[in-house]
UniProtKB/TrEMBL annotation:
SUPFAM superfamilies: Periplasmic binding protein-like II. The keyword Transmembrane applies. This is Extracellular solute-binding protein. The chain crosses the membrane at residues 6-23. Keywords: Membrane, Transmembrane, Transmembrane helix.
Amino acid sequence: MKRALFISSIIVIFLIGIYLFGLKPKPAIQTQENGSSTFTIWVYSSKLVNSVEAYKKENPEVVIFMKKMKSAEHLVEELKLANSSGNTPDMAEIPSLYGIFPLVENVSLIPVNEYVEEEFSASLIEVIEARFSINENLYAIPLGYEVPILYVNSNKYNDKLNIQTLQDLWELSDSKTPILADAMYPWYKLNMLPPDFTEEDQVNGEKLFFPEYSSMMALTDFVNGHAGVLISSSSKLHLLEKLIGSTFKWEPMAFPSSSEQLLVNGSGLSVFQNRDASKETIQSFFSYMQEKDVIFKMSVEETQIPPIKTVAESDRYINHFRQYPAYQLSIKQSLVKQGFDLSSEDEMRWNQVTDE
């Protein structure tokens, strides 16, 4: 009997030991105390929100504090305030049109070259890489970009349109078939006028649709059939498809420009100098964001052009938009364009065009 009790006691002690061992914090959780498995990230695009959530599911040991901003403009302003008080996140999504140069200039950001994998780097598309690079240092890993595009109400025209130049576009505008441009018109305008256009050309063109026809309601007016052409972003392709349906016949057309340069609208993921996250944690997330399947998914979700040629030129991506040959053409055109280098004048130029 005593022998049986002794054996039972040993078994109970053994089971209690296993139970207590199970309660011991896992090494990954313990490392959260020094931040090595924790990071903060500020974002504004839905595609990045979804990617962060997917990464969390695959890496449950990593604690992520994500702050979603309502717009790229809002995020830039919040970063300025946070930077002045030393409260920046570990990482942040930053728009390509403006906002990143001051953070590079005051050494708030670190180059991300060491986090970029060789295959990704070799395949980067120039027009988006240029918006985040200075002196061969990359200050954000590009996540994708969009290009200006024309959406044409085919019911407004008897013949198929042939728009090769800005003059062709401007001549289409009249009171019955106006050209509309949405609230991002400063971006379209910066892409519109190649260097060989005279000041008179610019003035004549702007009288037709800038800024009189530019408004937050431009997309709505086009969807309701009140315009001949909508100047907007390629990212609106699936949205217009959903909103218009079979109401009227419409088609996207490539944006006319004779310039060899293209200012794209996209975003990149940056790392801040004042950070708590470990290098290993940042590398893990950056490696995930460079996976081709992740890039493809983000690009399809928001109708953005992938940042690397190996995905942008793939049949898998191109064929996804086979019903829109004009968009496929816009993708291919962007791959051979020269980019606009990152400049201290980016924000000033943007504000100047916005205020005109």
